[in-house]
Design goal:
- By secondary structure, the protein is α+β, with helices and mostly antiparallel strands.
- It contains four helices and eight strands; from the N terminus they run ααβββββαβββα.
- The strands form two sheets. A five-stranded antiparallel sheet has the order 4-3-2-1-5, with no helix packed on it.
């Protein structure tokens, strides 16, 4: 049970299969905001950026980053914070997060239980739970 950082890293996101990761984007509604961290979905990606602005027009949404560079929002993946993960997990479902010695425990809708590895980071544990629930069709 650790809480050393609050935001996912690119490595955290790709710790699981790409298809599992993409189920999250298809299943949840998450609106990027100024100040959010993200990365551009490309092969060999290793750089994260911060949203400087969002340009909304009739047909698309563009993220402005890195001093004025632009990318279509469909080509970015947010680096979720612990708060965003908890919000997505609890939006339409009962969600209980507890500690159990050196582990985190999540009880979801009173019938799904998850326990982290000892000393696992909270952000990576919640990311695993969200991916699993989305892949199983329980969120979305």
């Amino acid at each position: 049970m650790r809480y050393e950082r609050d935001i996912l890293t690119i490595e955290d996101v790709f710790q699981y299969e790409t298809e599992e990761t993409m189920t999250v984007i298809r299943a949840v509604s998450y609106a990027l905001r100024e100040g959010d961290s993200f990365f551009i979905i490309t092969p060999g990606v290793d750089t994260s950026y911060v949203v400087e602005a969002i340009d909304l027009n009739d047909y698309s949404c563009t993220v402005i980053y890195d001093g004025g560079k632009r990318v279509d929002i469909k080509d970015v993946f947010p680096l979720f914070s612990v708060g965003a993960l908890i919000s997505m997990l609890s939006l339409k479902n009962e969600f209980d997060l507890r500690t159990a010695g050196p582990k985190w425990v999540v009880i979801f809708d009173d019938n799904q239980e998850y326990a982290s590895e000892e000393n696992e980071l909270l952000v990576t544990f919640l990311w695993y739970v969200l991916q699993d629930l989305c892949a199983r069709g329980m969120i979305g």
